[in-house]
Task: structure prediction
Amino acid sequence: MKQKVLFYAVSALLVTVWLVPLVIGVFTSFKSMDELLLSRNWWSPPADWHPRNYVTAWVEGNMSRYYVNTCIITVPSVLGALMVSSLGAFALAWYRFKLRTPILLLFVAGMLVPAQMLMIPVYRFSVRTGLYNTYWAVVLLNIAFESGFCTFCLRNFMLTIPRSIFEAAQIDGAGPFRIYASIMLPLVIPAMAAIAILEFTWVWNDYLWSLVLIQSDKLKPVTLGLANMQGKYLTNWAVIAAGAMEAAIVPVIVFLRFQKYFIEGLTVGSVKG
Amino acid sequence: MNRDHWTPYAFLAAPVTIYLVWVIIPIVQTMVLSLSDWDGVSSTLSLVGFDNYKRLLSDPYFIRSLKNNVTWIVAFVFLSLPIGLAMAMLFNNSMKGSRLFKTLIYLPMTLSFVVVGQVWSWILEPKYGALNTFLRFVGLDSLARPWLSDPGIVTYSVIAAALWRQVSYSMILFLAGLQNVPREQVEAALVDGANGWQRFRYVILPALWPSTVVTITVSIIDSLRAFDIVHVLTRGGPFYSSSVIANYMYIQAFNNYRMGYGSAIAVVQFLMTLVFILAYLASALRREVDYT
Result:
C-alpha cells in the first residue's frame, strides 16, 4: 500500500514537471499579448481565453499554406520510401546472392550517416537537375534517405514469415514478381503500416532538408513556416505559440492513436530519434 | 533460400539506384569537395589538397563547436541514460495508470525540434521567460540568467531542451530492454532475499547490458548530428558559443558559401560518427548471423 502511494506520488510529480514546457506552450497560445506582458504568471491558465491567436497563426501566419505543403511532401515521401524498400527488402530477405550482406550493410549504415555528409552534393544535384525549390527535391531525398531504415525493418519482418509459403508458391509455378506482389506484400502490410506511422512523424517533423532544398515561402512545410513566423511576429509570442501548437497537433494525434506501432518501430530500429 | 542469379538484382535495381544517387555518391562527392575551394556558385573549382583540414585545426569556432559536441555526448550519455533508465524502472510495472504516465512522458518525442525549440525559448527568455520568472518568484533572483545569450551557459541551455526529448527516447529503449530481463532470475533473487537495489544491481542491470550498449551508441550518434534545436534556438550564437559541428558546417556551407570548407567539416563529423556506426553495425551483423 505504501509502495503504491509512493509510486503514484512520484509518477504524478514527474509527469507534471515533464509536461511543464508543453503546458506553458498551450497556455501561452491562448493568452492575449497584454496578459502575457502584464502578469508574468506563465504557469497560470489564461484569464481570458483567446482562440483568435490560432486563427491569426493559421490565416495571417500562413500556417494553412504550410500545412498543405507538409502534406504534399510527407504523403508521397512515406509511400514512396515504403514501396521502394519493400522491393529491396524482398530480395535481401529471400535470396542468397553474393552482394547480399554488403548491400544490406550499406542500407543500414546509410541511415546513420549525418545529413551534413550528403547536404552539399544533394543541394548541387538538385540545382543542376532543376529539382531545387520544388516539392520533388525533398520528396525524392526523403524516399532515398528513409529507405535505409525501411529496408532494414521490412527485411527483418520478412524473415519472420515461414519459408514454406514461398516454396509452395514456387512449386505452383509462381514467378518472383508474382510471389512478391500477391504473397509477400499482403503479408507485410501490418509491418508497413507500423513503419509508416514512424516515418510519417519523422518526415512531418523534418526541418533540415527543407531548409536546404526549398527557398520559396509558398513551398515551405510547417517546420520551416513556424521558424519563419518567429521572424514575422517576433514580439507576439501568443501567435507563435498558437502556430507551434498547430504544427505539433498532427504528429501528437498520430502518436496517441498508434502508440503501439510507434514504440515498436522505434525499438526495432533503435537508430533514429 | 533461393539461388536464382539475376532475380534479386532485378528487385534491388530501383532501391539501390535511388540510394546511390542521393546517399552513397554524395558521400563520396563530399569527400572530394572537402579537398577543394568550391564556393557553391562557380562552375569550376580547384583542388587545394588538405588546406581546408589544416585551416580547421586553427579555426577557434570549429574547435569550440567540437568541444560543445563533446559536452553534448557527455550529457546524452551520463544524464539522458541514467534518467531514462530510472524512469523506465519506475514505469515498468502493471500498475493502473502506468500506461498513461508513459504516454505523457513520450509526448515530447513526437514534437519536431522546431516546436521543442519554440517552447523552450519561452522558458529560457531572460525577461519574461518561465524559468527566470519562477526563480524570482521563489526568491532566487541571483540564479536568474540570460540563458540563451550568456556564452558561458548557452550550450547547457540548448542541451537541456534537447534532453527533454532525448530522455523519453532512452526510456523507450530501456523499457524494451526490460522486457527481455528473465523473470525467473528476478524471482530467484527475490527468494534469495535480495533487496530492491541488489536485484537491480546484480540481476537487472547485467541483463540490460545489450540494450544499454545500443542506447549509448545511438545517443552518441544523435548528439553528433544535433542540428535542428541549435539552429532554432540560437543559430549557434552568440559568437558560435553554442555551435556544434553540424551547425557550423551548415553556416560555413550555406550562409558563407564556403562549400569546400563546409565539406571538410562534414567529413570530420562523418568520421567521428563512423566509429559509432561501425560499432552499431557490428552488433547488427551479429544479429544477422543469428538469423541465417
